[in-house]
Queue: 2 jobs
Job 1
Amino acid sequence: MEDASKVVVITGGSRGIGRAVALKFAERKPRIVIIHYDADLKAAEETSRLLEQKAVEVESHRIDVSSKADVNDCFEDIISRLQRVDVLVNNAGITRDALLMRMSEEDWDTVIRVNLKSVFNCTQAVIRAMVKQRGGRIVNISSVTGQIGNPGQANYAASKAGIMGLTKTLAREVASRGITVNAVAPGFIRTEMTEVLSEKVKASLLQQIPMGRAGEPEDVAEAVYWLCSDGASYITGQVIHVNGGIFM
Ligand SMILES: NC(=O)c1ccc[n+]([C@@H]2O[C@H](COP(=O)([O-])OP(=O)(O)OC[C@H]3O[C@@H](n4cnc5c(N)ncnc54)[C@H](O)[C@@H]3O)[C@@H](O)[C@H]2O)c1
């Protein structure tokens, strides 16, 4: 991804890991499309401001990526105007934690829809354009939880493990079209998603990290960016773990 005429779409790009990914891509000055679903537009506006400061052309859309119809409308508009999508980063995600014994059906369904079905929705909306272009990069943000599990996160772990399976399958389906599909699985990263955890939970998570610190959004962004670089063109169907050693 080393061309100023390229288009990079990042879901969940208003803050946290998605914002860090956008700012990392900004170094190459592609056109950046941010998708988010924040009720408060402040974070998305701040991300746009930071990107514009770097002389990047940015647009921001507030849509629910779990809605197939809304995703189709949004991507049809993006592709008809910009003519291409070179990079899709499926990063939008939520948690609704509870022990399985007590987990509501609604919390199960919501997390699967927002974290997993959204990847299906957004990917299906861009894949024809990528095939036509004869190239593209898709990076799906999974989680170490999808690999090793975590009490209280059955819905989240299932969605993130599902992303790994989807990634490997799609990688096989489109490899001959010059499209790579990979996943990045972060560990414990300092964002709004983890800010809400109690001090006790945070301390116990930190104890499990051989490197002894939480990761920063930028740690994840580096891996995503690299997977989209020319140097990673022979890498597909992989899950890259960015977790300070929690899972090896
Ligand atoms: N923070 C961590 O420790 C960690 C660890 C592993 C994986 N992850 C994953 O990384 C990704 C980003 O997490 P984060 O920590 O930056 O979270 P965050 O809560 O800071 O940001 C989440 C982003 O997703 C967007 N989003 C949420 N629901 C959406 C919907 N229905 N439609 C469109 N956009 C929606 C939000 O608007 C926001 O932009 C998530 O997929 C998360 O599961 C995070």
Job 2
Amino acid sequence: MKTHIYDFDLAQWQEYLRTKGYPAYRARQIFEWLHRHMVSSPQECHNLPTELRQLLEEEFHWPGGEEIRSLQSSDGTVKFLIAFSQRKVIETVWLPYPNRQSLCVSVQAGCSLNCRFCATGKIPFGGNLTTGEILTQFYLTQRTMQKKVTNVVFMGMGEPFYNYEATIKAAFLMHSTLGQSVGARHITISTAGVLPAVERFYQEKNPFGLALSVHAVFPEKRREIMDIEKKYPLQDLLKVLRQYRDRIRKNRFTFEYIMIRKFNMYREDAQKLAELAREFRAKINLIPLHTRFYGMEPPSEEEQNLFFKWLYEEGVLARNRRSPGKDIEAACGMLAAGKLQTNLLASLIQ
Ligand code: SF4
């Protein structure tokens, strides 16, 4: 299989061109065409010699062959469905805000973790995305929407730390000043808590924000909704995180917490969550469960407000992320749930 044209970083382009007998400055030219100008064809790279353009065409996979569908929500959120192949179908969500544009990217087609409240884990797993496929989501949506992406969250389909190398490399390429220059503080990688990868992330001193999917603070409850708790218990993860407390406090650190009615919204849950947030100076993102799902119920507005108030009384400020894109099944935990995917898959199979 050919390497995706967006897969290489600058050092890899330098090495590739050296082996092909081209001068080093061509690497920077190619890198800028790809990652600053986001070209999807070698013919657009005007200052490259014809034979080099031909070589790039022959030896690399270029974007452009993907099947794409999109749906726009009444609140402006746009969900893109991108099929890299019949098996590799993913969703990307464009989230417009008054002063910024956020993009929620996927790193896997499906997810092997199967959290109970999440639709993504319920579809057949189609494998890891390459760095180039992750970047394609960025460049394609930015070109389509004709607005600059200012924030990227790796919170779409899949567990980023089960596709660690491709994820981190994609984040660095988005951050590159020769490319789109997204600030490191505006790039957030989420994880359900893959302990060895979290440790690696901090050992490597990555500059990006980390969002930990906590969702329940007591082990028995967390085990009920997240299989990963059996393999990497939250308690063990927190012990490791304590070793990197200074680093964590420097970068952005967030707890994601899905609110499920009569399950994880009691006062003791709020107290324990607040205690952890204070210890790590973590921000808390509260996400209401959107629909009835596998015996779980969404909280009422009053229940959400009460949980928020308890956290506030404990001295921590939580943000209630009120489900952008809910009407098009683009909200957290809903990716892969919808008709868009069914329609696209049907058209691919025809
Ligand atoms: S919540 Fe995240 S980690 Fe859990 S199944 Fe869904 S995509 Fe995977």
